[in-house]
Write a structure and sequence with these properties.
- The chain has 149 residues and is of the alpha+beta class.
- The chain has a single domain (7-141), classed as Chemotaxis protein chec.
- It has five helices and eight strands, in the order ββαββααββαββα.
Length: 149
């Protein structure tokens, strides 16, 4: 299965439309889909998306019952806010106003491939998160004193 890779920044127009990067559209089309599924991240100030097929897989873990069963509350929170956004003829989606607000997007969105999903970030917020991640990774990979390469 093709995955979402790379980082792309695109403009958001006054109507909330943003172009989904061509490589991401290719992944979606390769799955036979014509829309993306998007929701606010549970853990970060961004939006998370994929093909709707990824989220349908969440349902396979639920038992349809009138008796409460073990619950996946994270999945429930995602499903509550999940939106299926069709791609228009130019490869754009229309972001809901509340999603723009939750991700603090302004006039641009940076699409970041995360393998089986992608994220949409406000570009300067992504830069801060990326620098912090780079510092953590660098600190963890640096040899300790006394280690020999």
């Amino acid at each position: 299965m093709k995955a979402f890779f790379g980082t792309f920044t695109n403009k958001i127009d006054a109507k909330g439309r943003v172009s989904v990067p061509a490589p991401f559209r290719a992944v979606i089309a390769g799955r036979g889909l014509t829309s993306v599924a998007l929701h606010p991240s549970l853990f970060e100030t961004c939006l998370e998306g994929a093909g709707f097929d990824r989220f349908e897989n969440l349902l396979s873990g639920f038992t349809d019952s009138f008796v409460p069963a073990a619950r996946d509350e994270a999945a429930e929170l995602i499903m509550e806010e999940l939106r299926e956004l069709p791609l228009d003829g130019d490869g754009r989606i229309v972001l809901p106003d509340e999603f723009i607000g939750k991700a603090r997007l302004k006039d641009q969105a940076t699409f970041v491939g995360r393998g089986w999903k992608f994220q949409l970030w406000e570009p300067s917020a992504l830069a801060v998160v990326k620098q912090a991640k780079l510092r953590r990774v660098t600190a963890n990979l640096r040899p300790s004193e006394g280690d020999t390469p």
